[in-house]
Amino acid sequence: MSQDRFHLAGVMGWPVMHSRSPLMHGHWMEELGLRGAYLPLAVPPDGLKDALRALRPLGFAGVNLTIPHKQAALQIVDEVDPVARRIGAISCVALREDGSLFGTNNDWRGFLGNLRQNAPGWHPGAGPAVVIGAGGGARAVCYALLDQGVPEIRVVNRSRERAEQMNRDLGGGLKIVEWSQRDAVLSDAALVVNATSLGMVGQPELEIDTTRIDTRAVAADIVYTPLETRFLTELRGRGVTVVGGLGMLLHQGPPAWTLWFDRTPEVSVALTEKMQRDITEKL
To answer: What dihedral angle (degrees, nearest 10) is formed by the CA atoms of 250, 251, 253, 256?
Structure first.
């Protein structure tokens, strides 16, 4: 690939200026010595179709999508891969050589990459997993665990109907548990994942009895503001291996770069520390 090429990508959302993605992708461009930019693109919901169709004439290689565009894009792009179709959301759009729009979902890859890096002792056959939530993040997490062959995946959500719909969309294989029984299904879990926004800055805390979780288990969160939620802090204090949500954001980046620029950047310690400082300073 020519070094003279201007590498252009971005993230579309509404709002979007809070996104940490430009810092991450900018780091990689500087590290790899590439001319380019990764831009935050504030696109209102009724402007998504026009914005995506404008990518080609503007010279973009592609974009990431964040709230509220991940579901709407399914009806706009020219091709949706089977993974995004099952998860029910597109997190990454790439421009094909013919100018068509290809949509996929890298959030599940981000979750797995984060888990492997920060909990290397975990393996799919370790035991049951408990996933709290049934929104977009939970769909990506459950897809990842199904893909890895986890023997039992218990989903706990306030709305059982929404959890049942997620199970149908993912092709089955999930065990739906009533919200009132959330503490009772923790004791033999090898992995517990908070896949909700509970615990995020400005949101209520996740109300769960963390003492029920075995100290040999792994606990993960998809929230990264704060870097460590109360849920994880309590468990870390008991000696449980905990995995924060920042790594999920970091690890969904390289697959996007492979699609856009035919390069695979590294999720390095330097990048992680840079992102952590930025989040801490702006909280």
So the answer is: -170
Residue 91: CA atoms inside 13 Å, Cβ hemisphere, count? 24
What domains does the chain contain, in order, with CATH numbers? Answer: 7-105+253-269 (3.40.50.10860), 108-247 (3.40.50.720)
Residue 73 and residue 89: Cα distance in Å, rounded?
8
* 167, 155 Cβ separation under 8 angstroms: yes
Catalytic site positions: 70
Confidence of residue 3 (pLDDT cuts 50, 70, 90): low
Query: 201, 193 in Cβ contact below 8 A?
Result: no
Average pLDDT for 173-198: 97
Convert 222-253 into a string of H (helix), E (strand) and C (coil).
Answer: CCCCCCCCHHHHHHHHCCCEEECCHHHHHHCH
Average pLDDT, the chain: 96
Give the CB-side neighbour count of residue 166, counting CA atoms within 13 A: 29
Contact 90, 80 (CB under 8 A): yes
**What is the rounded CA–CA span in Å between residue 142 and residue 173?**
10
Beta bridge partners of 102: 79, 94
Instruction: Give CA–CA dist 216/221, Å, rounded.
Output: 17
Enumerate the β-bridge partners of residue 62: 9, 94
CB neighbour list of residue 32: distance below 8 Å, 6 or more residues apart: 263, 265
